[in-house]
Design goal:
950 residues, 7-stranded mixed β-sheet, alpha/beta, globular, single chain
């Protein structure tokens, strides 16, 4: 039956309809009737705004039974498509799982869906919370869904849709593999909705989804619903980054280019000290320039944005400490962004949300300073904050009661916290290894927060002027939207046993070859093959150019290379011998030895505090042990405590003198360092280091070098007038040949890479009796229940009974070594550890890791490729032990010198792994499972237990 919808006369629609023929009017009426009969029509009525074309297109594809990949800018409303999947599931009587990368996003989405559909129809599953898990709609972190798939959970029955929010997380080198595991292992009957930030290779990702999931529609939208304007703030003036114009290609503002040129030409302080005279006109111009160009302070920036009506604003600072310092600077400057009424609302909400926190903990957590900032409309937001505090900041910001937030880049990873403006202090950030420029993708992600849909007409991205800034480079960041999605998928031990258990080895191998990582590797081989062909053509030309009429120049060139290689090898051997001698000398050092560091940043007089000996050679000295040679911890004459490496000792070092180190010496205390350094200078400041004489080169007496030189002189080509010209062509031929072989190795290496890694992992697990062919042993079934970076180490510890007889607090300390990773390498003394059984168990864990590390090397399993077991980090063991033992928050945080947010986060990760261990540990004849549950109870208290949902 066809329903004809009536059209009111006099409306625009009726006027347009009257211009159509009867057949066209009939067709239009049928279209309208068909649209009204769809699920999308009812869904659109639930919103008080119209849907964008890309949202409609994606929803129509979903209703047609297709999977969808939606790639759109931050804040464009792509989650509407995910919510339509929820709507379809409820309408069809099926289940929908909505997955997010982080718990905060899961909590936020759970609250949104509860408001729309009611808490009875929506559940939540994260590492911390399990609410209504059998509901038709369940919000969860992606890891939870992966674990359910491997465990064959009954909750998966009736699953019709899975929404993967922030699917571009599969580029994350630590957690990205989880997304691919879920996509590959979801049942074919499940429709997948993938929501991603704007990526430059969405079509490639869509092609892969089409291959592994079936018919998948790719919808890409570059349109920002709120236009973004780019600015540079220098001194008192805010400059537009781009010049206004008719052309599509935006030109950089010439004022900025001129300003950068003037600053670059300004004489430096050193130039003036050298006596370079400046004309009075130059001085006057510089004075005028300096009065206009400077980097404004943080309070000045907020005041300027407030005056321009550009608040609320998020200022991204790539340092937690700097975020906290920024809030203090604004408070000291007397900034107040809230009136009295707003202050009262802030205080009421904060007191409500923090009512569960004991009064004695508030001072430790910096509650009162935090509250003062909030009342003034100013806050920090970073991973080191207590989760409750972060959630309050987010809620107040959305309500407009906090107007200036200083945040690290973690805020840009999906939290729904849009602002009118985004400020970037610098375009450089620490990536864990070095200070590097932010990428166009990172710039797009950060500035994507600017502009609130339905509130702001336009968004603003403001970059602070810094000396040496290039406006062209900034324009490149702002104008480029390249954010390629790169797979980080690698097989793990846990993945291997789960796959073999479900599918057998052969089918598992085939499944892994369907990963996005292998898909990308296979595509890249095509381009490399073309390069090999071009290289081979070039080799023919080089070969012709090096032809010599006197003889075989290829042979002559080979002799020259062999001579050069032999000289290089002897030089390397000499250097290795000197390093070995230096290492032997370092191993003889003892605490209290005064030495002279021969080179490096800390060259000069130094006192050995800890010899830092290699593992197994501690000779009774307490302290850290290293697997890459001695790394002595020293106090320099300049009062610095640093752990040195072998590179600082190119020659052997001998003790110059001996000194007693006071028992009260604390390397963290500036006063202790100052006193001991002063005693060091007094004791040995007058002693000069012994100079090492250079040795005779090994090449002078080497028979092989003498033979090669004689062969060169006797070769016919040696007398050719064009010898050096031929040699240059021969060198080019050799380099191109080497590059071509390297490309051929890359082609070979990229073919079946994932499957080959899987084969090595399976071989190692077979060696350890976790697998026997397609059979998973009892040990393997235990490993299948342990998820994490150190899954195999945890399984081996259970297998060898390392944790038997430990109390709950001692077990918590040991398990912390499986999850904790220090943010930066610690140059101070060895971490403090609980004594007794816990210390012995931690030592045994390190020994087992050393055995596994050697085994991985034998099976060519490489940590640099994201596979394998890193060394356990003992840095959180003392904190976990104290907290699980019932110590107060004040005492624990004072002992470990760690932000409350980090402490809570690591505790929750320890709790998560303890839960896995309690499920995997033997039930009979073992106390581990029982003590793991008790350890969870000991850790899950106070600040660690505060977790809000919604």
């Amino acid at each position: 039956m066809i329903v004809l919808l009536s059209v009111r006369p006099g409306t625009l629609e009726s006027t347009m309809t009257e211009d159509l023929s009867p057949a066209e009017r009939y067709a239009a009426a049928r279209r309208r009737a068909a649209e009204q009969a769809t699920a999308l029509a009812g869904f659109r009525e639930m919103y008080d705004f119209g849907l964008d074309p890309f949202q409609i297109e994606a929803c129509q594809a979903l209703e047609a039974g297709k999977g969808v990949l939606v790639a759109a800018p931050t804040g464009s409303g792509k989650t509407i498509v995910g919510e339509f999947a929820v709507h379809l599931a409820l309408q069809q009587g099926r289940k929908c799982f909505y997955t997010t990368p982080i718990k905060a996003l899961s909590n936020q989405k759970y609250a949104d869906l509860c408001r729309r559909y009611g808490s009875g129809k929506v559940g939540l599953l994260t590492g911390d919370n399990s609410l209504n898990s059998e509901a038709p709609v369940v919000v969860m972190t992606t890891e939870v869904l992966r674990n359910m798939l491997y465990a064959g959970s009954q909750t998966l029955l009736g699953l019709g849709y899975v929404v993967m929010d922030e699917v571009h997380y599969l580029s994350d080198r630590f957690r990205g593999a989880v997304w691919e595991e879920v996509i590959i292992h979801l049942p074919e009957s499940v429709t997948l909705v993938s929501l991603s930030a704007t990526v430059s290779n969405a079509e490639e990702f869509g092609d892969w989804l089409d291959t592994v999931r079936g018919d998948t529609e790719v919808i890409v939208s570059e349109h920002r619903p709120v236009p973004l304007f780019q600015h540079v703030l220098a001194g008192r003036r805010m400059y537009d980054l781009f010049e206004e114009g008719e052309s599509r290609r935006r030109a950089v503002n010439p004022d900025l280019t001129r300003m950068a040129r003037m600053e670059a030409s300004r004489p430096s302080f050193q130039d003036r000290r050298r006596g370079r005279a400046m004309r009075e006109a130059d001085r006057e111009r510089e004075r005028r320039q300096r009065s206009r160009i400077w980097t404004p302070s943080r309070p000045e920036v907020i005041e300027r944005l407030d005056a321009e009506g550009l608040l609320p604003a998020i200022t991204f600072i790539f340092s937690r400490a700097a975020c906290e310092a920024a809030v203090q600077q604004c408070l000291y400057a007397g900034l107040r962004l809230n009136d009295e009424q707003a202050r009262e609302r802030v205080r009421a909400l904060v007191e409500e949300r923090t009512a569960a926190i004991p009064a004695e903990d508030l001072h430790v957590l910096g509650y009162y300073e935090w509250l003062e900032g909030l009342e003034r409309g100013i806050a920090a937001h970073h991973a080191g904050m207590l989760p409750t505090f972060k959630e309050v900041v987010e809620e107040l910001f959305v309500q407009g009661l906090v107007k200036a937030v200083f945040a690290t880049e973690t805020l840009a990873l999906g939290i729904n916290m849009p602002a009118r403006s985004v400020v970037l202090e610098k375009l450089v950030k620490w990536n864990g290894e070095q200070h590097a420029d932010i990428t166009p993708g990172e710039y797009t992600q950060l500035t994507g927060r600017a502009g609130r849909r339905g509130i702001d007409v336009e968004g603003h991205a403001v970059v602070l002027w810094q000396r040496g800034m290039s406006p062209e480079h900034l324009a490149g960041l702002a104008g480029t939207r390249t954010y390629p999605l790169r797979s980080s998928f690698r097989p793990s031990y846990n993945m291997a046993v789960n796959l073999v258990d479900q599918f057998g080895r052969h089918r598992s191998r085939e499944l892994l070859e369907t990963s996005f990582a292998q898909f990308q590797a296979d595509r890249s081989v095509v381009g490399i093959s073309r390069q090999v062909q071009r290289n081979e053509e070039g080799l023919e030309g080089y070969k012709a150019s090096m032809t010599c009429h006197l003889g075989d120049f290829t042979e002559y060139a080979r002799l020259r290379r062999e001579l050069k290689d032999r000289e290089t090898e002897l030089s390397r051997q000499g250097a290795a011998q000197r390093r070995a001698e230096a290492a032997v000398a370092l191993e003889k050092l003892k605490p209290g030895d005064v030495i002279h560091v021969p080179t490096g940043k800390f060259a000069g007089l130094a006192l050995v505090l800890d010899p830092g000996l290699p593992a197994g050679r501690s000779d009774g000295h307490r302290g850290l042990e290293y697997h890459d040679g001695p790394r002595p911890l020293v106090l320099t004459a300049e009062r610095q405590v640093k752990r040195l490496a072998a590179i600082d000792f190119p020659v052997p070092v001998e003790p110059l003198e001996r000194m007693r180190i006071p028992k009260s010496f604390n390397p963290r205390s500036p006063q202790s360092r100052r006193d001991l350094a002063s005693a060091l200078r007094t004791k040995a400041g007058h002693i000069s280091a012994e100079r090492h004489r250079k040795r005779r080169s090994q090449a002078a007496d080497d028979r092989e070098i003498a033979r090669l030189r004689a062969a060169l002189r006797a070769h016919p080509c040696h007398g050719c007038d064009d010898r050096e010209d031929h040699a240059r062509w021969a060198e080019r031929y050799h380099r191109l040949m080497r590059d071509t072989r390297h490309l051929e190795h890359r082609i070979e290496g990229r073919t079946n890479t994932i499957a080959r890694t899987f084969d090595r992992i399976v071989a190692l697990l077979t060696e350890l009796d976790y697998l026997r062919g397609d059979e998973v042993t009892e040990h393997g079934k235990r490993l299948a229940r342990l998820y994490g970076e150190l899954d195999l180490l945890a399984s081996e510890c259970l297998r060898e009974g390392v944790w038997e007889g430990l109390g709950p607090a001692e077990l918590a300390a040991c398990v912390s070594a499986l999850v904790y990773e220090a943010r930066v390498s610690d140059d101070a003394m060895a971490p403090k550890l609980p004594s007794g059984k816990a210390k012995a168990a931690l030592g045994e864990m390190v020994r087992i890791w050393g055995r596994l590390d050697a085994l991985e090397e034998d099976f060519r399993i490489n940590q640099t490729e994201g596979v394998g077991q890193r060394e356990p980090d003992l840095g959180f063991a003392w904190a976990a032990y104290m907290w699980a033992s019932g110590k107060g928050l004040d005492e624990v945080l004072r002992e470990v010198e760690m932000p409350a947010g980090d402490f809570v986060r690591w505790c929750k990760q320890v709790i998560d792994v303890l839960g896995q261990i309690s499920a995997a540990a033997p039930v009979e004849g073992s106390s581990v499972a029982r003590n793991a549950r008790k350890a969870v109870d000991g850790l899950l208290r106070g600040v660690v237990a505060y977790s809000s949902v919604g």
